[in-house]
Write a structure and sequence with these properties.
Layout (H helix, E strand, L loop, with lengths): L6 E4 L10 H8 L2 H6 L3 E4 L7 H24 L5 H11 L3 H21 L5 E5 L15 E2 L2 E2 L8 H7 L5 E8 L5 E8 L4 H15 L14
Parallel strand pairs: 1-2, 1-3
Antiparallel strand pairs: 3-7, 4-5, 6-7
């Protein structure tokens, strides 16, 4: 596909989210890749207000629906974060769930209207570099404290609740060699367009070719 003239909204921090500087640096270095493909790249972010509320309500509701019965019989075997999510869902009221659904519809249409100007939105997949396997989750980014165990991936779940098609592609490596990804978001139901531009980006960069050695501890 020829991407000459395709318009891209470039959002380095989804408008206001804390992002590790190294993630921003690696991502910013690939902005030119899109212009070399013929795209018009502009700094822009959709209006994502209420995305946090929508996601937290719908996630908690689903956790309680899926695992509420297990919590009663197997609480001692469950992770604290899972217990927290289930209990959040159990405390929800009908009006809270209804309000979240109304706001999700409003967010869907704000995103749809935003994407009438742009063919694609490009943003970080997550806001941090890959972290140590022994760290349960990130609690702080750039001296900004995080409230929950999934706040370090808000840049990802904000897009989830819009209903827009999206995928992540490798976009480079940190100074220490850790992989960084960017997510490409498309218009409603333009899944194929997202696949096309992601394929073009991968061909242009070749980052997908790296196969890191995996050390197995056999002790």
């Amino acid at each position: 596909r020829d991407f000459q003239g395709a318009r891209i909204a470039w959002s380095a921090d989804m408008g206001r989210l804390p992002v590790e500087p190294e993630v921003t640096r690696v991502m910013q270095a690939q902005r030119r890749t899109f212009t070399d493909l013929g795209c018009i790249v502009e700094d822009a972010t959709p209006d994502l207000r209420d995305a946090d509320e929508i996601f937290s309500v719908m996630r908690a509701w689903n956790f309680e629906l899926s695992f509420g019965a297990l919590l009663k019989s197997n609480r001692v075997l469950m992770k604290d974060t899972v217990i927290w999510n289930i209990e959040q869902g159990a405390r929800l009221t009908g009006p809270q769930v209804g309000a979240a659904e109304v706001k999700r519809t409003q967010l869907f249409h704000r995103m749809r209207e935003f994407m009438e100007k742009y063919d694609f939105l490009v943003a970080p997949v997550v806001q941090v570099l890959p972290f140590d396997v022994d760290v349960p989750y990130i609690t702080r980014i750039n001296d900004v404290g995080l409230d929950t165990y999934i706040d370090w991936m808000r840049s990802c779940y904000y897009i989830t609740v819009t209903g827009a098609p999206a995928l992540s592609v490798p976009c480079g490596f940190s100074a220490a060699g850790l992989p960084v990804g960017l997510q490409i978001v498309g218009r409603h139901q333009d899944d194929f367009g997202v696949l096309q531009i992601a394929h073009a980006f991968e061909l242009a960069t070749g980052f997908w070719k790296r196969h890191p050695a995996i050390a197995l501890n056999k002790s």
